[in-house]
Amino acid sequence: MERAREVDSARHVRRLGHLDMPGGGQVVVVGDHAYVGHLSPPYGTSVVDVSDPTNPRLVSRVMLEDSYTHSHKVRVVGDLMFTNHEQDNRYYFRKGEQLHAYASGAAQELGRLPTDSELAEFMSRNLNADGKMHRLSESDVAVLREAGKRGYHDGGFRIYDISNKAEPKLIKHERTHGWGVHRFDVDDKYLYASTEWEGYRGNIVVIYDVADPVHPKYVSHWGIPGQHVAAGEEPHWIEDNWRVHHALRQGSQLWVSGLWAGFFAVDLTDIHRPRTIAHHNYHPPFSEPTHTVLPMPFEIRGRRVAVVADETQVHRRGQPHGMLWLFDVTDLTAIKPMSVFSVSELHTPWARPESWFGCHQFQEHFEDTTVCAAWFAGGVRVVDVGDPTRPVETGYFVPEPSGGAKAVGTNDVDIDARGLIYIIDRYNGFDVLERTSDQPIEEDSGAHGCGCS
Fold first, then answer.
1. Around Cβ 434, how many Cβ atoms within 10 Å?
2. CA end-to-end span of the chain, whole Å?
3. Is the pTM above the cut of 0.90?
4. Per-residue pLDDT at 422
């Protein structure tokens, strides 16, 4: 049997600088600074000087006040920094709000009040097998009981004055609803938040006027049909499988990813009345949810092309991992797929020990036909989509684990005006990368035959 060949960690991409840093959810680069939103408390947001890409330097870091919130997304407009505020470990702690209902169910089954151990067993048996909850123990019941009493009231977004990068100053904490803001987009006038909202099931888009950052004003909101349960709509999906994950503005349109609902185009000509103008869903048969969607700001070969990233979640044996898609959205009444780009588990040494392997996110602005995609255990993949029917990989970089992490989890990527690539790891690490070639990576043709007769 032929020995498996060693996996290269990089092709046509090299590291310029590295910084040990707690796990990150998003990185954006503006001018000489990179901004990193961290995944877990107490770390909030880091500001990094990247004027010398070989020596990235931490300038400042916003720390969170408690262990119940994370602030893993960040945007910068001029001298303002926007961050999200969302309940940390939200799927777990929300069970605290439902503890009384579970206890009533267990009591009915047992014919008496359950002990905490019995309640934990009952909850473990009745929770949906959605991969977001581990089996509960007796000690979990005590933690969830306290969480239910405490509640969560800080979800929303924050605005900071960063005219002095060394001392970000909080100027506004705008609270939204429920567990708060997950992802968001922002420009010089409006903020587009994915957040829970009273009367709706799951996150929707809520638009705020932030022209006066001290006094953000609600403008309007938009949800997926079926989410507005207070108005009598009935969701036809399981749990929160259909909800707004991310919304990005391009011109007068908002492009919204909806997890297993696929993606939507929303007209914002009248921003007070967002209007759905297109919807496309490729689930089923594909099992991984739609994470992000954004059209290229220019036509490619006479077509308007949207880039779509799946998000690999709990991978099921026999199903494809999350992929990078290209869709023809020239005619919004007839959206159709043009191609997919995928990465084999053979192309990274971390695919087997790391359950997070597959596409997650691409850089959210395009200057040319180059798309950089964060691929969790697959590092970052550089893909040319000049022929949208045949995306071609032109480079990749798979970092080694750092800071004591056992595996790699490249979570986000951005590109600066110099063409340098910035990636962050969900466990630990921040890297500045440089492309060394634009040539396609040659692969085996695969025409070897099976040797059968």
1. 18
2. 19
3. yes
4. 98
